[in-house]
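Quick one, T. Sequence first:
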Amino acid sequence: MSSGSSPRTPRTHDQNPSYRALLLPDLKQMLETNNEQELAAFCAELHPVVIAEILEELDPPDVWKATRHSEIGRLVELFSELPLSLQEELVDIIERPRLAELIQHMASDDRIALLSRMDKDHVEALMPLIAQAERIDIRKQLEYPEGSAGALMTTEYASLPEDLTVRDALDRLRTMAPNSEIIYYIYIVDEQRRLDGLLSLRELILARPTARVADLMQRDVVSVRVTDDGEFAAQEIARFDFIALPVVDDQNRLVGIITHDDVIDILQKEATEDAYRQAAVEPIEDSYMETPMTTLWWKRSIWLGALFIAEVFTFSAMATYEHALDQIKVLAMFIPLCISTGGNSGSQAGTLIIRAMAMGDVKPGDWLRVLWHEIVMGIFLGLTLAAVGFLRAAMTPGKVLGDVDRWMFAGVIFQAVACICLWGTVVGAMLPLIFRRLGFDPGYASSPFVATFVDCTGIMIYLSIAEVWLL
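Structure tokens:
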């Protein structure tokens, strides 16, 4: 539970700030006077998203005081728009019967998102207060792995048998609509609830009343398994431009659907996790301001510590070539130029490949094509940067060069920059593919990780070339 978390900091929004600033004092005055009638009217009149944004400015007890008298349908709408961290705090405040009623009426995907974050004992205490059908549904969904299609789906969908006429199908849909999240897609199932086909509401409305569903439905239905990753389901919805995607079990029985609004949440979460990992930070569940300082310290220090230890090898690499650095002092001055080339090119390639993998454009099996592509690109990029490095080295003052031949030294910088850029590009492109092949998130092949690795090896490349040509 959230009892041990840091104080909640309200989100800030740029949209209509004066509108909220105008309403917040009125809401606080209603709370001070405990005007239940006005509070209920306030929660009923505005859009749930607007109300939720205003409620986030209040402490959890006042949030519940402001919303508790709303009718259950409206309360569910408001509660679902609040951040999960605030929902967790409200769970400790709401009386148990009312909380059970609230959870029972929430969309199945929303309530699973909340229940999966709650203490297991608290969840079990609520179960007897929830209707048996909902209770069975909740227990089943909680068993699915976190982040899987089964854990993200909603079980509120419209389904029909194929032996109905269009007129009978529309009559049934009228009774299903209040309990279905969307009815634009109607899924056709047999007696064992195996998924046989799909029919859109548009097709149903435009068809003759006497036509049969079996003759209208599309039999080639795209679906995902309950155990498939949620990101894969999101990619499939985006790929086919669906509003929803059916989720089936290993016997092809329809168990739920993932809707387009869930896809937005999934892709936003995945993009956020990738951004964190590419910056060498373990992903955080809540917003930056709501995450406890100790949690932020731990998630940031893990990677920083690992990268710091890895950088020790840079010192070891330089110590190996101490004699070269002692004899040719100017070599040390160009170390930052050379190794930054590898880190930058590697980070650039890694970001491109990680994004391509997230979009489904690149798979681990494409490693050979990616390798060849990045070798060619690395050569062109390396030669481009090496030419700049050659000119800069050639302009080094004579008193800095000492006894070193100017053009020989410029040639060393040219070769080193070209080789390090090529090496960084290849490493940055290959590491995400290797991580995915090993079962890790490619985001772990973060820019700092690539840069640190290429720093160590880049120094060895640079000083090895210098030894060959200058010593």
